[in-house]
Predict the 3D structure of the following.
Amino acid sequence: MKRAITPGQISRTNLELIYDYIYKNGPVSQQDISYDLRLSRPTITSKLTDLEAMGMIKKEGQISSDLVGRKAAAYIIVPDFRVAIGVEILEKQFKVLTVDLNGSYSLRKVFPVTYANTEEYVHTVCDHINEYIESLSLNKDQLLGIGISIPGLVSADGAEVTYGRILDCTGLRLSRFQQYLKYPCRFLHDAAAAAGSELWSSPELPDFVYLNISIHLGAAMIRNHEIFTGMHGYAATFEHVQIYPDGPVCYCGKRGCIEMYCSLSSLLVGDDEDRFFEMLRQGDSVCRERWLHYLRHLARAINNSRLLYDTVYVLGGYLAQHLIEQDIDFLYEEIEKMSPFPEYRDYILISKMPVHNITIGAALPYINEFLDNPAPDT
Ligand SMILES: [Zn+2]
């Protein structure tokens, strides 16, 4: 028996189609929508009225129509109709910002609160987040949720930290935060949050490995536009792949992990990041030698992984803002020396979002979920 589609479902689908069209193409006129979506003008007029009444879209200026000499009202989405909060937990501080439906961030704040696995810490962080949210003066349904990034692996449902050696927070449960927060929240692995930001800014890339090269190294794998975490959440934990069994001890307790050769701390060994790169680009020979040594390790790490996945590698994290094309050329040259196969130079990219990517990425799952299903339940 065929199932019937109700008029309510058709109406909802049309509303979502029109909203999605304006989201992706705005500013647009009624005529643009009608032509591209093949919907009747009365249907569009009615849905635009509904969307405008709900505050989801607005008229902004006028746009040339095909009719000679006539201008039509231009429609765009209201970017802050819904927003999400991104929080990034670090050892010595935590960061908060607001992300709108266009993925733009605002009102970034940094709170110098040192992590501790105590109730007092959780309470303090949540008090700051609640005060921050109050200062936004949002209406009742405007805030979708709060994404909290953690430098560690989290369970698939975002409810628990399953491996958190950097902060010693293994086993930390989301419920300890949720009890003080009035909005839905979830944990995210920081590298996955960063990769989510990259995915947002590079929708043309369906598959890639994202390397979050900051004080510590992290990675995430994107497959078919989604983060792939594997059977136990260990997929792409690149940082703990052992490349030198007799190497220095990693924070994970094992020796010679990629973390010990390719993280920013392994490069800087205590030096100031900006100063190091300033001296490097001015031609300092000691810095250059250290840099090339570092890049050779990074090339080895990428090559080892690439022989398994043969995909695109996006170099992100704090390192991304310092990278130049000659560095990428050097990586290709080093990989060509190691790889048995004919080589291409089309798979190493510098991140498009080197700044605040983790904090923004922590909020983006809420934004993506809204955009996948924007029409209100009726
Ligand atoms: Zn390790």
Remarks:
- The pocket of zinc ion is lined by residues 240, 250, 252, 254, 257, 259 (CB under 6 Å).
- The first helix runs from residue 7 to 25.
- The domain at 7-77 is CATH 1.10.10.10 (Arc Repressor Mutant, subunit A).
